[in-house]
Structures are given as C-alpha cells and as structure tokens.
Amino acid sequence: MSAIPLRVLNDPAPASGRFSRRLSRYGGELRTASVTTLQVNVGKKCNQACRHCHVDAGPQRTEVMPDDVMDACIQVLTRQPSLETLDITGGAPELHPRFRQFASAGRALGRNVIVRHNLTVQFEPGQQDLPEFFAASGCEVVSSLPHYTEDATDRQRGRGVYDKSIAALRRLNAAGYGKGDGLVLNLISNPVGAFLPPRQEDLERDTRAYLGDRYGIVFDRLFTITNMPIERFAGWLQRSGRYDDYMERLDTAFNAATLPSLMCRNLISVSWDGRLFDCDFNQMLELGVEDSAPSTIFEFDLAQLAGRLVRTADHCLGCTAGAGSSCGGSIA
Amino acid sequence: MSAYFDDKDLAHFGDLKDHAPELWERFMQYYGPAFEPGLLSKREKVLIGFAVAQSSQCPYCIDSFTQQALEQGLTMKHLGEAMHCAASLRAGITLAHGLVAHNIDKKVSM
Known about the structure:
Chain A has 332 residues and is α/β, with parallel strands linked by helices.
C-alpha cells in the first residue's frame, strides 16, 4: 500500500493513468452527447457526516450557494427547455434557505425535479413537513439507504440513522410516495466498505421484501452506486490500507459496456459557487469542464457544452466497474 | 516465507497451473461453471461456497467467498447465520458418528 496523501488524490492529474489506459482501447476519450440534466449542488452543509461521502459534507461546512448563482441556474432552466431534469444535491440540499423556492421554480418550469434527500433531514428544525412539500410540488425523491439492515446502514451513516430513515420513509409513504401513483421514491444503496455493489435487481428485490415485511415500507426503484475513491472515502481507504486493493478491484472490473451510458454523457454539474463540471465527483476534485467550454453558470451555453470532452482521472473507474454506476444506479 | 498462509497467496493460485497444466485446465473448466448461476442463484452458490469454506477451514476460500458475499449484497449478519449452519452441521455430524459407537456397543455388549 502506497501512502498517497489525500491532496494528491484531489489533483486533477491522473494518479496512475489506470483509467486512461482502459479508455485508450475504446477511442481514448469521452464526449458528452446532448445535455439533458442540470445537476446543482447547492452546498456542502449536511446534518450527517457519512463515512463514504464524496462531498466531505457535514454540519460544520459553510459553503452555501449564493442568490446570484441560484438565480442564474433558474434563468438557464428558463431559456433551455432541453434541460429536462433539475437534479438538486448537496450536502443536504433542504438545508439551503432557498431550497423550496428553487425546487418549486424547477417544477413551475415543467421540469422533472429530483431531490437527493438523506431522509434524516426531515427531523431537523423546520423540516418536518418536507414530505408534504415534496408531494405538493411533485418532486422526485431519491434517498440514501446503504443497506436494508440496521447494522450496515448505521456503520456507514452513523448510529441511529437507520431508525430515523425508516421513520422518514414511512412519512414519505404516508404523503403518497413510492406507491406507483406518480410520486416517485427511489432508494440509493452503496456498499458499506471497499467492494463493488451487488446486482441492482437482486438488492432491490431483497430490500423491497425486507422493508415491506418488517415495516410496511414501499418504494419505486433501488439504485446501486459504487463508492468513489475520492475525498472522505479515499481517506478511509488510505488509513485502513485498502486504497491500492480497491483501485485494483475497480480496474480489473472495468466494463466497456458502461461507457455509452455514463452520466457525464448527458449531465452538467454546477457547484455551490457557480462553476461547471462534468459530474459531482469532478466537482469535488476541482476538475472543471474542458477549457474551451463555458466555466460558470453565468456563461452557460448549451451548444458549447454539448459534445465537450469529459475530463477524466482514475476515479472514473468507479463509474465503469462491474455493472457501472451513476446517479441513476447501474448502467450496464 | 514468513507464514504458511498469506492473503497475498490467493492472487498466485493460478501459478499452480505450471505444475500440471492439463489437469489445471480441467479443474478450471469445472470450477468456473459450477459457480455460475443455474437453478441456484449466484448468491446461493456463494453462500454454499462460504459455508463449505468455513467448514473446511480454508483461509483462502473464506477470504474469497466473504468478499464475494459482500458483493452479493450480503452482510456479516447473513454470514453469521451461514457460519452457524456450517458449525451446527459439523456438530451434528460429530454427534451422528456416535451412532457407529452406539451400534457397535449394541452388537458386542451384553
């Protein structure tokens, strides 16, 4: 195990060229197709501090999207109808003071608004009516539940998170979510450790049976996501001596069939301070869009962003390993 | 070599091919398909592999099948139950062999 300091992992330069070598056999580059999703990270403040978090989010973080950036995002959505989806993430995006206004603006423009909702934020002051807000505005809710068992979930997200998550899911169900009636509740599961996720369909089946039998909870889909070897998860890999083995696991599991469906093909990611990135992971690595493309939301130009060259590094192996990984689950 | 068992050995399992290549190939042609999904799912086969590894006390196999089980969405809670299946069966097997003693005693004793 080589002792790689965390900042080296955050360097835009590929750490070992593993992904480049894999990609070189399939054209050597990744380019976006049409951009249909505007993913906005409204800040790094979160009521939780999960061990795998690629954002390094937590209660002490102070980065919050300012008004002019959020207004610019709304303006971009207004003039670009081909941006079909507004994907709001964080941190816990609900803690942004203008979150509800932002989500409502997206819905008023007729967009599919996805909220990446950690469930437990429902129990923060002033957030108790979130399920009702989501339902009234028609947002799609995507919630993290690493595993259907308590022990595994609490080990990753903190003691007591499982019980709170179950209570929050029940409240979402009570508000009409997850019942197949148009209010979509999807779950996100990521491995509790340095290994790949199971087959999405299998875990979805088991989770549906377990949560349904024990708690009467229903949901629409479950998506599996691979842990990205960046930020807090990378720190854990390094401290526990597992970094090299994990990268080897991702590398050997490279699956070229994932390449056409990678989320960077159809997404542009906006940081809390308005910069543009190919994905939320590149955002955390400060790996901005290619130099010839607009670099901030204020200069947003869809024609220039479509077909752009995606900036890649070794962490991209996380999206191409096994059945692949994206904000919408497995892709191959 | 500082120990008889080393976790890094597992990556060199294939080196054994050098000593009997044809037999090795036959083994791999059998071993690989045996763990492919069939009437039993991949996960069921991995759990069987884990329980046999525990029962056979093979550290390489326990390492491999634990990691495979985690990638099948199983946790140590699941594997804990599987361990007790293996352990209780071993206990039952030990006890069941007592029937041999029981029968011998019946045969030769007054």
